[in-house]
Amino acid sequence: MSDSFPISLHPDPASGLFPISFEQVEAVWSEWPRMFFEPDGSFVWVADDQSWQLDGVVYDRDDHVLRVDLTGVYQTAPLEQLFRTLGWPEANLRVELVRDGQFLEVADFLRDFAA
Predict the structure, then answer these.
(1) pLDDT tens string 26-60
(2) I need a labelling partner for 26 at 20 to 30 A (CA). Which of 2, 61, 82, 87 fits?
(3) Number of compact structural domains in the chain
(4) Predicted local distance difference test score (pLDDT) of residue 32
């Protein structure tokens, strides 16, 4: 699917927070080619050939990432890379389809919505 629509990434409700800090995310993501990460948590990551782009914001609380909001053209490889830095697949992450208020497991989102 190439349409841009908003999603939010959430940790397993039992844990309440991602197993990584904002500073760790910033350090890792800032090393990626064509990733532009701002100190306020906003970011944009663009494919070299411009076939996809992810824009978003990382929110934190109590030294852990709380939520990541995303919009863009969702492709499997970059999404998996981003999800892995947030602890997936060891940590159970959920994807919220913001407009629908529906939560999906990461594997289901990748299957149904990523190219």
Answers:
(1) 999 999 999 999 999 999 999 999 999 999 999 99
(2) 2
(3) 1
(4) 98
Residue bearing tokens 């070299």: 48
Flag whether 85 is in a domain. Answer: yes
For the segment 11-22, the average pLDDT, to the nearest whole number, is 88
Interatomic CA distance for residues 60 and 105, integer angstroms = 21
Return contacts of 53-62, CB within 8 angstroms, 24+ apart.
54/78, 54/79, 54/82, 58/22, 58/25, 58/26, 60/21, 60/22, 61/17, 62/17
In the sheet that 64-72 helps form, which strands lie side by side, from edge to edge? 35-37, 42-46, 53-61, 64-72, 7-11, 93-97, 102-105
Instruction: Count the neighbouring beta carbons within 10 Å of the beta carbon of residue 91.
Output: 17
Enter the tokens of residue 20.
């990584």
Note the pTM of the prediction, 2 decimals: 0.92
Residue 2: inside a domain: no
